Amino acid sequence: MVWTDEFTDNGSPNSSRWTYDIGNNGWGNNEVQLYLQDPFASAVRPIRELKGFELVSLKPGETKKVIFTIDEKMLQFYSANKNWESETGDFNIFTGADSTTKRKATFVLN
């Protein structure tokens, strides 16, 4: 598989887009997974939370674009205040074929 990626602000103050081009040198199905991490959360959070995935079927030499929109709701967790909340700060995005991916980007929620 061939991977290229780009993290961009899509013009909305409450969401951003992760654009992901996936290519294939042979036939097959490829799963693209999106994981988020809040490295400085006030509560214990998973190291990587699966927040999206897409199954992509590719012919030899074909490339397809996968787009994940990341909004504030995806960053929320059930807090000690007994509410669904998100916290400002740095977040990490991981995308790849599985949870061991090293492909990473960082963004800040203000």
Please tell me about this protein's structure.
The relative contact order is 0.28. The chain has 110 residues and is mainly beta. A four-stranded antiparallel beta sheet has the order 4-3-8-9, with no helix packed on it. The protein has a three-stranded antiparallel beta sheet with strand order 1-2-5, with no helix packed on it. It has a two-stranded antiparallel ribbon with strand order 6-7. The model has no long low-confidence stretch (mean pLDDT 81). It contains no helices and nine strands. It has one domain (2-109): Sandwich (Immunoglobulin-like). The protein has strands at residues 2-9, 15-23, 28-37, 49-58, 63-71, 77-78, 84-85, 89-96, 104-109.
